[in-house]
Amino acid sequence: MRGGPPARLVNLLERLRLATAAQVEQAAPRVRRLAGDLPDFESVWIDALVQARVLTPFQAAQINEGRGEALVCGPYVVASRLPSPHYAECFQATHLETGRRARLYRVLKPQGDAAQAMRELQRLIDRLAPLAGPAACVIQHAGIDGQDVWSSCAWVDGVTAAEWLAEYGRFPPQVVLHIAREMIARLADLELLGAVHGDVSCAGLVLERSGRVALPMPGLRGVVRPAEGYSFNELPVEAYDYLAPERVSEGGPPTTASDLYACGCVWWHLLTGRAPFAGGNSMAKLKSVHAGRLIDVRQIAMNVPDALLRAIDVCTARQVAERPAAMSEVRALLGAPARGGPAILSRCLLGQAWLWQPVRKTHRARRLPDTRRLAVAATVLIACAVSAGVWQSRAIRRTAEPIKLATAGAAADTSSSGMIPTMPPASPAAAKTKHDPQVTPTSAVEPLVAEPASELALPTGRPVSAGELSLQPGQRVHGQKGKRAIVHVANQGLSVACEDVCFEDVDFIWHEGGKPGAGRVAIPAMLTIAAQRVEFRGCSFSTPSDQAPVAVVWSGSAEASDANDGELAFTDCVFRGVQSAVDCRGTTGLSVELANTLCVAAGPIVRSYAPPAAGQTLAIALQHTTTRGDCAVLECRYRQLEEELGAVVVTVIDSALVTNPQGALLILAGPERPEPLLRAISWNGQGSLVTAETAVAVWRGSEGREQPLPEDELEVAGLVRSDVTFAGAAHEPPPSASRITRWNAPLQSDSPPGCDTSVLFLPDDPVPAK
How far is the C-alpha of 324 from the C-alpha of 570, rounded, in Å? Predict the structure, then answer.
């Protein structure tokens, strides 16, 4: 008779909070199948837990080698290894208390004293606190582990540019232009806070599937390796590819000039597919960087945009005095980010950049005789049946569907490891645009598809009620076969208590449910989120009734600490007729990001019921966002104001904020005048329009009357007042009616501000204007 799981293994997994004793016991049937006639060794239990997805392969390898305790780093447990930025080890990790994912860097024996490096890191964390969130990926936590230093930042799911270059060779020029603009925008934000990145490189450049660009851990390399040069040649060769010549010769710390030089080298590398300087070992590479000069990129890459050519030329000047003095000068050279830039990068990452490759000649296959074809088909079916019996022990149906589920599971494994798919879609149906609803007739009702835990496919032939959804952490919720899904919500709507759930191409429609007084709530909500991070892509929130619900009520996770702010991200979304887009009722800070999003008669984008407490941050980031009607950016209600408050950071880039003539961008509602709150608010950005009649901030007193607040009491940057003309009226339902056709103020880009309505979708249900 076999025994239970090894006590040592159970104790280890419980200490690491990777599994409970009950979860380990549940793997017993799988252990018996794997062991067969052999004893059930500890390694067999570990293999069974990997197959059950309780452990990752990396965790299993560490435990098998006796290094299980090393999986813990500060308050994190390591899940998998990520591509390294060369000067540090990089991991995907999970916070032990909150379960929140993060990118974790571990620097082995930094230069100088680890305690001094830790003090500098803490100052860096405090300085970059206004940029907290996945967009900037600044350091959130840091600590010392023996002689090593570790740090963590927000999780960003993507592929590094170095990985993509190794697979495909080079990026298309228009994609590089978009990446360059996004990089400079990230670095300009750091420059405003008096910081530099210090490790701009292809290995540290993360490209997200949504088309966003991230430069994680700004400032870390400059703290742990303040000196570079011939005396510090212990790193891999690739770690020195983008060093500025003066850093090699003088050994000084990174500066804005060295970051700009690194940017030029990175863009050159992305365009050409090869490292900017040669060198077979670290010393040879340093000599090449010190003495070399980049050749003209046009000798290797064709059709490079003129703006990118000029930027590369000025950034890679060998003399510091010949380079731009600030990031803003390079931003002016490159121009403002184009609205279609994220879509171009996204298509490239999804494998549609195969336009680089010539079309191969196809050869007509020789047709096999009927008997041979039957024999081959029988062999394939037998092989599939055997593999399905081995790897799919609990098949949902005794058909070919287990094979389909195994394929989807493999894709989920790739996603969870930090990689994103790079192959082109398998069929034209998979590449249809998201504004096509593709709803099948009601007679063709499809059930919920049983898929791996990372996927939940909703039927598209009928509306789904919120009660039918069973969510799990890290799940992607979408319609079947690439089509849009409709979810009807009522009363408190859909409850989301799982971390890292992503809703994609889902239309949330409000339907008043229940009898009066039966389970109704004072402020109805379409979604109630009790988690720290949730994402929406291509979704819509609308109501055909006169009762205006809140689109999203965020209360946050009960286990979250003050150091773990919440994050809500909306990309290519539409809010119409809702009371507010996000109601903030959590006890921690919150970051709300809207990218290419339309808000029509949607109340405030964020409504908070208390200002952030000292040490917390409420961050609102709008990029290519359009608001129409009664739609403030923030409404903050309060009963009493403390002298010391947290920060309210508003960043608005290339957006159009068109409110009612009596409207305001900021509404501060409370019994006393909001001077302390005004001092806590900072507004920055670029290229955004606001109508001439719109007030920046108003105070709504206890009697409900609104008084405009002096604009000189609030620092506002990046807003231009202008009349705006739309393609249609605000009450017209299609998003295309909110396309901007005319504006009066000069901007950095010829493209209209606001959202690109061609990729937005809204159901046909009539929605009355507020």
Answer: 35
